Amino acid sequence: NAKAQGRGCFSFFDFNINARNQRMIKVKHALRSAIEDKEFSLVYQPKVNPAQMTLTGYEALIRWDSAQLGPISPAEFIPIAEESGEIERITDWVLQRVATDMQVSNVLDRSNVSINISAKQFRSDAWINTLRELDANNLINAHAITIEVTETALVDSFDKTLEQLQALRDLGATIAIDDFGTGYSSLSYLKKMPIQYLKIDRSFVKDIGVDPDDQTIVQTVIVMSHALGIKVIAEGAESQEQVDFLSAQQCDEIQGYYFAKPMPLQDLAKFSLQEPAEA
Ligand code: C2E
Ligand code: MG
Ligand code: MG
Ligand code: MG
């Protein structure tokens, strides 16, 4: 431990914590004006049905190019936005932007679009009300929307989440459990939740062909889901080998650099499934 290794180690450790705190404070501060300063954008990543080689929809993923800090990954700023409460406004922005994009793009207007919602937001109704309003005003068609949420929401506050998911189903939206396998949800949770898709986390897909255990996990999740009447989508497929394995296991849909990276709206029309993207 640190103490046994002497005092130098302590100060090195403190320095890292300090640097990380400084960065978090900067990010948190910069987030406050990001919407007004038009620093966010959305990119869309195609989803593919491997059996039919057809596009089944797109996942909307946020991008942030901060004037002060440069480009920042959502993996870094979304957790900070959750902590500061800024996530509410960000999700509203995402919902509105998806609505506009689906109106103007003749690729998206005929497709299903997935939107990521932080597990923490399942404690409040605000964002569902935004979606409901957009739908009521014909600015978005909730039937064409898939909501992606991680297992954390199911485990953290079961009753509230169930109520929210039911409200989403009433609106006609599809529900997918994102990053499946990384959380702590059990079969009993899945059985009680009105979900249509499980999304197998990239960490399992990554080692297909490398780690037999991960292959077994992927196989088992697919068999189990299908037995429960739930479809499976795999995220992060990058190689032919992974795609072949997933297809052979009857994985319903695949997403990953093998087929396409996330891209700006204006590039969607140019994209076709014929030529796989260079990884
Ligand atoms: P996620 O929802 O699990 O999204 C998948 C992530 O994997 C995306 O990263 C995507 O760009 C990346 N990815 C897709 N295919 C591949 C592949 O073949 N190889 C590799 N290495 N990566 C691949 P991204 O866009 O950086 O987003 C990271 C996470 O940030 C997302 O994970 C999601 O949890 C969160 N996020 C992104 N956009 C939003 C948003 O609008 N709202 C919320 N609440 N969270 C978001
Ligand atoms: Mg997702
Ligand atoms: Mg995911
Ligand atoms: Mg993920």
Could you explain the architecture of this structure?
The chain is of the alpha/beta class and 279 residues long. Helix content is 44%, strand content 20%. It contains eleven helices and ten strands. It has helices spanning 7-31, 74-84, 87-104, 126-136, 151-156, 158-171, 187-192, 202-205, 212-227, 240-248, 265-268; strands at 40-49, 54-66, 70-72, 113-116, 145-150, 174-180, 197-200, 231-234, 253-254, 263-264. Strands 1, 2, 3, 4, 5, 6, 7, 8, 9 and 10 form a ten-stranded mixed beta sheet that branches. Helix 4 (126-136) links the parallel strand 4 (113-116) and strand 5. Helix 1 packs across helix 2. Bound molecules: ligand C2E and magnesium ion (3 copies). One of its GO terms (cellular component) is membrane. Residues 24-276 form the EAL domain. This is EAL domain-containing protein.
Distance between the first and last residues' Cα: 41 Å
What is the makeup of the main sheet?
10 strands, mixed
- Low-confidence segments, ≥5 residues, pLDDT <50? none
Beta strand count: 10
The portion of residues forming beta strands comes to: 15-25%
SSE string: HEEEHHEHEHHEHEHHEHEEH
Summing up helix and strand content along with how strands pair, one would put the structural category as alpha/beta
Overall 3D form: globular
Rounded mean pLDDT is 91
Radius of gyration: 20 Å
Protein name: EAL domain-containing protein
Domain EAL: 24-276
